[in-house]
Amino acid sequence: MKKILLSLLLISAFISAAEWPHKNISVAEFATDVVDRKPVNVLTESNNSNKKIYFYTNIRNLQGQTVKHRWSYQDKIMAEVSFKIGGPRWRVWSSKNFLKSWTGEWRVDVISNGTLLMSKTFNYKEK
Questions:
Q1: Which of 44, 48, 69, 110 could form a disulfide with 117 if both were Cys (CB 3.0 to 4.6 A apart)?
Q2: Is there a domain that residue 45 lies in?
């Protein structure tokens, strides 16, 4: 029983750590728009009258690398957007158009060179 509990605690710690910003990501947020390179109307959830959601990240010290936003729904990859990081501070965002029926939890993974830097989730719910 103790081994099972310890294993669950370790798995929980790993999953929670993926939610925290990585040392190279100072901001990661869902929003209804991006204006002047800043997220507008930051979201943790949205109703399905919102047809487009943005994911914004402020990347630090990964110049020369490629970073991806991987949008997933029900453990299925729905979109991937790649960015070439051009400087020590690089702000990037991607967006996803939604169907009203795509309710539930969505996740965006931020990946660089095959390494998961962080994951963030939001809930897309019925109006």
A1: 110
A2: yes
